[in-house]
Amino acid sequence: MGLCFRWFSKLFGGQNTEEKSLEKILGFKPNNIEFYKLALIHRSASFISPTGELLNNERLEFLGDAVLGLTLAEYLYLGYPFKTEGDLTKLRARYVNGKNLEYFSKEIGLDRLIVTKANIHKSVHISGDAVEALIGAIYLDRGMEYARNFILNRYVKTCDQLQNEPDADYNYKGEIIEWCQHHKLEFRFHTVQNSFPKNSRPFFSTILYIDNSPAGCGFGASKKIAEQAASREALYACRY
Questions:
Q1: Sign (positive/negative) of CA torsion 165, 106, 21, 35?
Q2: What pLDDT digit, counting tens, does each position of 80-93 carry?
Q3: Looking at 18, 102, 111, 132, which residue is catalytic?
Q4: I need a labelling partner for 3 at 20 to 30 A (CA). Which of 84, 97, 139, 193 fits?
Q5: Which domains are delineated in the chain?
């Protein structure tokens, strides 16, 4: 692994500049800079090391996603003692959506350091995934406390700037569609208007299928509300 990382570091010409940029983003000096360099390699720029390892940031993204989810769960649980489980779920989903991750990446300048062969401007997931990979790198390099502090003191505060819209306006359907497209999964909404006595208000029920498996269900006074509710349930289930 050491040989692999020493070879990998040759990709970064002007190593001092890269390290200084990372230190400014992190707010501290890394113990092992190689974790952070790996966090910047999008899968489109993957390469094979001399030892046969496929190098990109996907494994760090997986780890960082879990650390981010746990930290936010604890933060919301302690910060909102009277919120129901459903309310806490909605709050957490708002913090981890692609829009917030992309915004944070640009806000701290992480997007400018990402190594990718894809068009970063056409996908929020490239810069957003790098944020989660960065969190994974912090966890491996410095432990949970540093990762937690970075999330709460940097990520959460930045995301709060985008939390002004009413929760009802949040587009859960758009978020789950984006998630499915990113993971190349088929999806479909099956919505039914329930039968009620004449002159009663209509009532809709929706089941969202992802790869032909039920992923979420929702109900509401309109098709839109029912689909939003099903999308919200599916989004939570898919990410956590």
A1: positive
A2: 888 888 888 878 88
A3: 132
A4: 139
A5: 2-160 (1.10.1520.10), 172-239 (3.30.160.20)
Q: Contact, 57 vs 42, CB < 8 A?
A: yes
Q: First and final CA of the chain: distance in angstroms?
A: 31
- Is pTM beyond 0.70? Reply is no
Residues present in the chain in total: 240
The amino acid sitting at 15 is Q
CB 215 within 8 A of CB 229: no
Flag whether pLDDT at 2 surpasses 70: no
Identify whether 65 is a catalytic site residue.
yes
Instruction: Catalytic residue, from 61, 65, 129, 227: name it.
Output: 65
